[in-house]
Amino acid sequence: MSSRDKANFILRRLERYGWISVDTDHSYVQRVNFRDYAVQVMKTLLAISEEKRTEYQGYIYTIYSLARAGLENPGIGLLQIVENTDALITGLKSLNANIKRYIDELTKHSTVAEIMDALLNDYYTNVVDKAYHRLLTSDNVSKFRPEILERLESNSRSVRFLNKAAGEIAELREISEEEAREEVLSMLHEVIDAFRQMDEILSEINKKNTRYQRAAINRARFLLSSGEDVRGQLKDILIYLNERITEKKLDYNAVYELEEMDRLIKLFSWEYLDTDSLYAPVEGKKEFILEVMESFEANEELREEKRRRMEEKLARILSPEKINVYVKDMLGDRQVMAASEFPVSEGDTFIRLIYIRLYGQRKNMDYTLELKNMAEKCGFRFRDFLIRRKEGR
To answer: For the segment 260-311, what is each residue's pLDDT rounded down to a tens digit?
Structure first.
């Protein structure tokens, strides 16, 4: 088939399945037009393929502007407010669902590198940086909501507004003015209720965001835990067995088919309790006999030692305040510095870099972040980012 034949074949298929309509004018020239629903489907598919994200600021600012517009075309303005409110709520629900999807997929990552890449690159780039961060800062609903609610509630009590809006809606939808008036009131209360109940969605988004970050960090911490103690050794054994089972495509119930099992560990279930059991059974209640307790002096040396250990433990906790001080010390007189310029091979310096990235999304930090390309330093491979000092801090 030639290019023309292929094009005509596709056009005939599109016309047969109702995607396009073909009109012939007086000069026998055929004009092809996409149907309205086909345009909507194609726009949706293009948005999915291009990974377009919801711009909350556009919806919120449009609602805010229309609510303040006054009595000039109130009916049309109210329809636009309802449409933008619906799009805003849909976008928030999509963001909430996206965070849940990341939480569900977190269990698929088996290495620290995969978890950190999912958290710092994929999650922060596609969810936090593009939607969640703006939702808490520039697109914050709380900045516009009070005046929006005040204007809409005032309009719902204004006879002049209701009459003029009802007249426009009645003309647009070809219904009586009484029906249009009821519809105007219904739309106003619908938008008001949506903005009042928006806190529930925002709270759920905040909870899921915190839960995802905590789950990712805890999973990474577990994988990074030392293998010198019994817990670490058992973890290594179980990880090794899981790899062997996956490699041989065995069922987990057939774990004893592995030759290494006899040399690694013996797993069995205890069917009954006896004197040799690892479990000490409850023997029932015993009579309580009063006894005199001897008083003793507290060992000050032991108390000082425990106090010292507790202070050392608290000193190792990387709080946002400590990260702020650390970033200030590293920046010195500079206004901006790349993460790849920080030391990563001494002690817990790379862990500090991770916390700089995590805490950088908070509003009360003294610095902001700007993502760059991948970087590699001292055996660590990570998404590089610029650390910029905030003005006046």
So the answer is: 665 655 555 555 455 555 555 566 667 778 888 777 676 788 888 888 888 8
Helical H segments across the chain, by residue range:
3-16, 36-49, 56-67, 74-105, 112-116, 133-136, 145-157, 159-173, 177-196, 198-224, 230-248, 261-264, 300-316, 320-331, 349-359
282: left (phi over 0), alpha (psi -120 to 50) or beta: beta
This prediction's pTM: 0.46
Q: What is the band of 342 on the pLDDT scale with cuts at 50, 70, 90?
A: confident
**What is the spatial distance between Cα 74 and Cα 67, in angstroms, rounded to a whole number?**
9
To the nearest 10 degrees (0 to 180), the angle between helices 177-196 and 74-105 is 40
Per-residue tokens: 4: 């023309």
The domain 319-389: what is its CATH number?
1.10.10
Per-position b or e across 123-144, b if 16+ CB within 10 A of its CB: bbeebbbbbbbbbbeebebeeb
> What is the residue-wise DSSP string for 345-360?
SSTTHHHHHHHHHHHT
Q: Where are the domains of the chain?
A: 3-50, 56-224, 236-263, 319-389
Helix (H, G, I), strand (E, B) or coil at 283: coil
Nearest to 126 by CA among 44, 52, 49: 52
